[in-house]
Design brief:
Layout: E1 2-4, H1 7-18, H2 23-37, E2 47-53, E3 59-64, E4 83-88, E5 93-98, H3 108-119, H4 124-137, E6 139-140, H5 143-151, H6 153-156, H7 160-166, E7 178-179, H8 182-193, H9 202-214, H10 221-226, E8 230-232, E9 235-239, E10 242-246, H11 253-265, H12 277-291, E11 304-311, E12 317-325, E13 331-332, E14 337-338, E15 369-372, E16 379-384, H13 388-401, H14 407-412, E17 416-418, E18 423-425, H15 431-438, E19 443-445, E20 455-460, E21 464-466, E22 474-476
Parallel strand pairs: 18-19
Antiparallel strand pairs: 1-11, 1-22, 2-3, 2-12, 3-8, 4-5, 6-7, 9-10, 10-15, 11-12, 13-14, 15-16, 16-20, 17-18, 20-21
C-alpha cells in the first residue's frame, strides 16, 4: 500500500508493486513521478531522505539531501548571486532568495539511483517509465499542487522556459491545467536507456556548471562529480512501549521529534484528555521547549516538501521525504528540471548565506519515520512542511501512542504549531480548549485548514493508509 502527495505519484508506486517490484522500486518510481506531478514540491534537482526497514530487519537512512556548492571555486570567485522575490501569502508577504546563486548541489537523482541499485530488483527502465509517460503525455495537477504553482509563480516563471511551462496562455496555472514537460521526458528516457547515469556525467556536469558560472551560481563540475549518497544508522527512540526510527543528525527534524516525545514521557504515563485545553497547553509548552534547541529563523512560508510512505506484502517498509526548497527559478539546461533554492533558505543557514564549507551536507527538518509498536503493527509516516514537520509528526505520534487513535483520526485531527511567538491553531478544536490555551500563550486561530500545518502521509500494513488532505494526499493499494 502507498500514501503520497498526488494520485499520479501514488499510481506510479502501485504500478511498480503490481509489476513485481518491492517497496524500494515503488518509492523510487514515486520520486521520479513526483518530479512531474508535484513540481512545486519535489524535483530531481532537490534533495531528500529515504528510511528503509527491509523484510530481514535491515534499517538504514539513505541521505541524499543537498550539499553546499563551491568545490574548486577560487578565493577570488564572485559571491553567488541571490535574487530576492516576494511571494504573497494569505497572511503576509515574504521575500525569498532564488536564482542561480541559491542552487545547492542536487541529491534526489543520485539518491533514487543509489536506492534502486542497493535495494531495488526490477529494471530501471520500468521504474522510470511511469514518470517519463507523465512528462510526455501530461498530468493534471491536483488542486493543492496547482495552488502551489500559482503561489510560486513569480519564482517558477523567471525564465522563458519557466513562463512557457508554468503559465497557461500567459495567465495563472489553473486546477484543471495539464502539465507537460517534454525536455524532462527526454531526460528520463535517457536515464532509462543508460545514456545518463547522473548529474556527474562529464558532458552534463560541464553544461550545468557553465550555466551556473555564467549566471552567478556556485555549483561546479567538482560538486556534481563528488556528490555521494550517505547511508546512516537511523535515530532510534522509545515512547509508550513503541520504537521509533527516524532521521538522525546532521539533520535536526528527527532529533526534535524525539526530544518532544521524551519530554511528554517525563510528564507521566497519561496526558490530559485528547483535545482538551490542558492537553493543548502541555503540548504547546513541549513544542516551545524543543524549539529552543533549534534557533534558526522561523519562516512564515510553507516550504516545498512532499512525502511518500510504502509497505509491500513482503514486509519491506519505505518512508521518503523530498524537497526542492521553494524552487530557484533555474531550469537546468536541456533537462526540463527545476533546480532547488536551498542555498537561499534562511531557516537552513542561520549563520548567513554561503558561509558553510563547500561539500558540507546541509541540515534539514525532514524526518521520514517508521513506528514499531509492541503489537508488531508498524506505521510508515513522514510529512512536508518545513518547521511544522516536527509539530505535525509529534502530534500524530502522540495521537497514536498516547491517545490510542486510529491512524486516520491521528492524521486528520486539528494541529497546533508554536512559531516562537504565537501558537498557530488549526480550526476544529473545542472553543473552550482554545480559550484555555489563550490564557497561557498568544494564540492565532486559523479560519481554514492549510498546508502550513504539514502533510502526514502514512500507511499501516494491517490495513490503514491515509493521505493528508492538507497537502493533496492520495493513497493506493496494489
Amino acid at each position: 500500500m502507498v500514501a503520497g502527495g498526488h494520485p499520479a505519484t501514488v499510481a506510479a508506486a502501485v504500478e511498480l508493486l503490481q509489476a513485481g517490484g518491492n517497496a524500494y522500486d515503488a518509492a523510487v518510481a514515486a520520486g521520479f513521478a513526483a518530479a512531474v506531478a508535484e513540481p512545486g514540491l519535489s524535483s530531481l534537482a532537490g534533495g531528500g531522505f529515504l528510511l528503509a526497514r527491509t523484510s530481514d530487519a535491515e534499517e538504514v537512512v539513505f541521505d541524499f539531501f543537498v550539499d553546499t556548492p563551491g568545490r574548486a571555486r577560487t578565493s577570488d570567485a564572485p559571491v553567488p548571486h541571490l535574487q530576492p522575490v516576494t511571494l504573497r501569502f494569505k497572511g503576509a508577504d515574504q521575500v525569498f532568495h532564488v536564482g542561480h546563486g541559491s542552487v545547492a548541489v542536487p541529491g534526489c537523482l543520485p539518491g533514487y539511483l543509489h536506492v534502486h541499485r542497493r535495494l531495488g530488483r526490477v529494471p530501471l527502465r520500468e521504474v522510470v517509465g511511469p514518470a517519463a509517460a507523465l512528462a510526455r503525455e501530461g498530468v493534471v495537477l491536483a488542486a493543492q499542487q496547482a495552488g502551489v504553482v500559482r503561489l510560486l509563480e513569480p519564482i517558477l516563471t523567471l525564465s522563458d522556459e519557466g513562463r512557457e511551462r508554468y503559465l497557461v496562455d500567459g495567465g495563472p496555472f489553473t486546477d484543471g491545467s495539464v502539465m507537460v514537460n517534454l525536455p524532462l521526458a527526454r531526460f528520463l528516457d535517457a536515464i532509462a536507456d543508460g545514456d545518463v547515469t547522473g548529474f556527474g556525467d562529464p558532458d552534463l556536469a560541464r553544461v550545468i556548471a557553465d550555466d551556473m558560472a555564467e549566471h552567478g551560481g556556485a555549483v561546479t563540475v567538482e560538486d556534481l562529480t563528488a556528490y555521494q549518497v550517505i547511508e546512516r544508522v537511523p535515530l532510534t527512540a522509545w515512547h509508550r512501549g513503541a520504537r521509533l526510527l527516524t532521521n538522525p543528525p546532521p539533520s535536526f527534524g528527527g532529533t526534535l521529534i524525539v526530544r518532544a516525545l521524551s519530554r511528554l514521557s517525563a510528564r507521566g504515563d497519561r496526558l490530559p484528555p485528547c483535545g482538551s485545553g490542558a492537553a493543548l497547553e502541555q503540548l504547546a509548552e513541549v513544542l516551545d521547549e524543543v524549539a529552543r534547541y533549534h534557533t534558526a529563523p522561523r519562516p512564515l512560508s510553507s516550504r516545498g516538501t512532499t512525502q511518500v510512505s510504502i509497505a509491500d506484502d513482503e514486509g519491506n517498509l519505505a518512508s521518503m521525504t523530498t524537497s526542492n526548497g521553494s524552487c530557484s527559478g533555474v531550469i537546468l539546461p536541456g533537462t526540463g528540471i527545476m533546480a532547488n533554492n536551498i542555498m537561499g533558505e534562511e531557516d537552513l543557514h542561520p549563520a548567513g548565506f554561503h558561509t558553510a564549507a563547500p561539500g558540507e551536507r546541509v541540515g534539514s527538518m525532514m524526518a521520514p519515520s517508521i513506528l514499531l509498536p509492541s503489537d508488531d503493527d508498524p506505521v510508515v509516516l513522514g510529512s512536508g512542511g518545513s518547521e511544522r514537520i516536527r509539530s505535525a509528526l509529534t502530534q500524530v505520534l502522540v495521537g497514536l501512542l498516547d491517545h490510542g487513535l486510529p491512524l486516520a483520526a491521528a492524521i486528520r485531527s486539528p494541529r497546533i504549531h508554536w512559531d516562537g511567538t504565537t501558537v498557530q491553531v488549526e480550526p476544529g478544536f473545542d472553543a473552550d480548549a482554545v480559550a484555555h490555551l489563550a490564557e497561557h500563550r498568544p494564540v492565532n486561530v486559523w479560519h481554514e485548514t492549510d498546508l502550513y500545518f504539514g502533510g502526514v502521509h502514512a500507511v499501516r500494513p494491517s490495513g490503514e493508509r491515509v493521505g493528508d488532505a492538507r497537502r493533496g494526499g492520495s493513497t493506493g493499494l496494489a
